[in-house]
Amino acid sequence: QKDLIxxxxxxxxxxxxxxxxxGDLKRSCFYCGKVVTVCAAxxxxxxxxxxxxxxxxxxxxxxxxxxxxxxxxxxxxxxxxMVISDELQKQINIIIHQIxxxxx
Length: 104
Fold this sequence. Notes:
The chain is mainly alpha-helical. It has one domain (2-100). Helices cover 79% and strands 0% of the residues. The protein contains 5 helices and no strands. It has helices at 2-22, 26-41, 45-55, 62-80, 86-100. The longest helix is centred in the first third of the chain and has 21 residues, at 2-22. It is globular.
C-alpha cells in the first residue's frame, strides 16, 4: 500500500506541473484527492494533512471552509497522536468528491 501512496504522490506532482502549463487543474485535483483518501485510509495523518492543505487550492465556496475544518481536525489528531476515525474518513471522501465535481 505504501507503493500505491508513493505512486499517487508522483502522479500528483507530475499532473500539477502539467495542469499549470495547460491551465486545467482537473487531473491534478483528482490525484490530490486520491492521495488524501488513500493516506487517510492508511491513517497516515502527516501526508493526509499535507495533501489536504494542497486540496484547499482546488476547493471553492463553502467547501473551502469544510477543508479548513478537516485540516484543523487532522492537526488535532496529529498533536494528540490519535487515529483518523471512520466518520472523518467519510467526511473527507464526501468533500473531495464535491471538490472534484467542481461544486461551490
